[in-house]
Amino acid sequence: MSSGDAILRYVPGGDAEALGRRLGGRRVIKLASNENPLGPPRGAQAAITDGAGLANIYPEPTSESLRQALAERHGLRAEEILVCAGGTDAIQIAAMHTAAQRPGAAVIAPTRSFLAYRVAASQAGLRSVDVPLVDERLDLGAMLAAVQDPSVGLVYIANPNNPTGTSVDPKMLGHLLARVPERVLVVLDEAYIEYLAPERRVDAAALVRRHRNLVVLRTFSKIFALAGLRVGYLLGDAATIAGLGRFVMPFRVSAIAQRAAQAALEDELFVARSHLHNRRERAVLTRGLLAMGLAVTTSDANFVLVRLDREAAPIAAALRERGIMLRTLEPYGMEDALRITVGLAEDNRAVVDALGEVLAASREEGELAEVS
């Protein structure tokens, strides 16, 4: 086996357009990648169109205009912000930085948390240390105990967590951050933070002012609906951000992506509407799944985790033949689970109905097999 074969790989959700073509051009309901179903804000769409004529010009190498807008939003200085190509880029940058500072260090990556943490650690030659979840929630007490090991150089904390959708207690988070050794870089991944109820959020700017070894990850891929443009950013102490910035190539984020992100940032009404839509439809989707007798984890994100009473992969395959794409979770050790993104109202209803029919057919086939 080559060294490249040993590196973990992240397998993204499927291609809806390819599935649609295979199914004869029918419309596909894709609820597998936690995308905002409302589409990009109008201002961002206009920025994309207006910026098309400048595609021959290199973008601002450090996203200066966007950084300044983000600094004003968060009450920080521009040098305390690092713009990168989406949240996964930020995750990888943190791993590369850690590997350069402490080759072969250990990384705390909670079990059943975003697989990209372990992939980034593997790519950087770091060793992942799993910390099990408790009731589908991050066990911050166990993570704090694990991070005391002198070999640990990096810890990822997702709030809310993907793929469970659960969030952490703000007081417990503060307790952990106050006790993490300064030698350890902490990445607080808040990709889904805008979906969390406001009273459950923590002031990111206040946190990074208080903890120099902390960076907070944000993205424009989720509630801002710009997943296809790949824009994310890190908030942190200026010296920490400068250190991470050494692993970012210039021109990483396109000019069009920078312009669209800045326009989306200004559209507070769109963000509020997206939050409200998600809260309402997440409840509807959850009720529909519970009515089928399925176990659903209470979610603070824009998706729900549902447990079936059987292997999920055949169920997901049958749904794909109906033009419905959901996320199976075998890489997380959850062979009986599906992650379902909160979609448009009509799509959520269609998914619940189709899932009920496929499960009923599967159970009937199982009963017939037992009789025969």
Task: Give a short overview.
By secondary structure, the protein is an alpha/beta fold.
Task: Tell me what you see in this structure.
This protein has 372 residues and is α/β, with parallel strands linked by helices. It has helices spanning 3-6, 16-22, 42-51, 64-74, 87-101, 116-123, 140-146, 170-179, 204-210, 238-245, 255-266, 268-291, 312-320, 345-371; strands at 29-30, 81-84, 106-108, 127-129, 152-158, 185-189, 214-219, 232-236, 295-297, 303-307, 324-325, 327-329, 334-341. It folds into 2 domains: 3-40 and 269-371, Alpha-Beta Complex (Aspartate Aminotransferase, domain 1), CATH 3.90.1150.10; 42-267, Aspartate Aminotransferase, domain 2 (3-Layer(aba) Sandwich). The protein contains 14 helices and 13 strands. The protein has a 7-stranded mixed sheet, sandwiched between helices. A hairpin with a 4-residue loop joins strand 12 and strand 13 (334-341). Helix 3 packs antiparallel against helix 11, helix 5 (87-101) runs parallel beside helix 6 (116-123) and helix 12 packs parallel to helix 14. It is globular. The relative contact order is 0.16. Mean pLDDT is 94; it is low at 1-5.
